[in-house]
């Protein structure tokens, strides 16, 4: 039984606590930590049948002998401290995306992991576990469609509040496609560009929304990604891969088509929690199954670093309006 300590008891922290203590096999939550004690207490109350220790200090929960592994669900800017502490303590750690908010911080984690000599870090890029993306990947990998040429994606959300900035369209939102498409295409990023044109009337005054991000891979695949976080109609994730010998369109979870009051209609998803609910379950089960063996099968610290280098370039491209190059450097032998 993997005894897990969860750091950051907000929205997704509580979702993961419920998974790790009830829904999934082979784990239990033995400790929780939040900078606000009340938040930690409320989260601990979600666990029934066993005692959960409450912490407000990151180092203390990492050092707890009754904690075998950590799940980090604090905001991105607060990921570095707990992830580094877990790596230094030799404990497996699942960190929600992004690994850190700068490439330099991600590199520090990569270097600490290499020094420790054990694969301990998994990043919460759950789309790699999504059924639809995996169906697309299987078709691409079969070779039946020839080589991929162009990928068209949308990442739309109903609305965001005033704390969501123009940069977050990259660092919080597009970061999923940055990782997922690198995995889907089995390719690294060469260059990126951001086009910001007409703004929606629903964006708060400081926010550029929508944004079109164009990313080119090393093998020459062009990705066109629309990020539109005040679309008002739903949480709408789409991905279409145009190949030499055909086009693959990712399926979305389906809803019934109904006839009522002179209308034929089908619901679409409105909430990220539900859109990827199965992926979160499969992702964390996979993490548990490997963490007990000190293995990482999902996206690792190097993937977290790649995503952040690419995100940094996209943020630069937002400001410059130019095509920005991605400089990753050699993949360390430890991650090959
Ligand atoms: N994979 C996904 O689809 C997905 C979905 C939602 C959120 N996330 C990621 O999960 C993380 C958390 O997002 P959220 O929506 O749950 O945020 P949230 O704001 O709801 O919760 C964050 C919690 O962390 C606590 N916290 C802040 N700083 C802390 C610190 N230094 N130490 C301990 N606790 C601290 C806050 O008090 C809060 O309770 C973010 O990195 C976000 O990008 C991922
Ligand atoms: O844009 C949102 C993404 O679609 C979700 O999957 C979460 O990662 C959330 O944190 C982001 O704000």
Automatic annotation (TrEMBL):
Gfo/Idh/MocA-like oxidoreductase C-terminal domain segment(s): 137-326
EC numbers:
1.1.1.18, 1.1.1.369
Q: Does the keyword NAD apply?
A: yes
SUPFAM superfamilies per the record? Glyceraldehyde-3-phosphate dehydrogenase-like, C-terminal domain (SSF55347), NAD(P)-binding Rossmann-fold domains (SSF51735)
Q: Which reaction does it catalyse?
A: 1D-chiro-inositol + NAD(+) = scyllo-inosine + NADH + H(+); myo-inositol + NAD(+) = scyllo-inosose + NADH + H(+)
Keywords (alphabetical) are:
NAD, Oxidoreductase
Return any one Pfam family short name.
GFO_IDH_MocA
Question: Which major enzyme category is it?
Answer: oxidoreductase
**Pathway(s) served:** Polyol metabolism; myo-inositol degradation into acetyl-CoA; acetyl-CoA from myo-inositol: step 1/7
Q: A GO molecular-function term, please? A: inositol 2-dehydrogenase (NAD+) activity
- Could you tell me which residue ranges the Gfo/Idh/MocA-like oxidoreductase N-terminal domain spans? 2-124
Listed under GO biological process in this entry are:
inositol catabolic process
The keyword Repeat is annotated on this UniProt entry: no
| Protein family | Belongs to the Gfo/Idh/MocA family.
- Protein role: Involved in the oxidation of myo-inositol (MI) and D-chiro-inositol (DCI) to 2-keto-myo-inositol (2KMI or 2-inosose) and 1-keto-D-chiro-inositol (1KDCI), respectively.
Q: How does it assemble?
A: Homotetramer.
Name of protein: Inositol 2-dehydrogenase/D-chiro-inositol 3-dehydrogenase
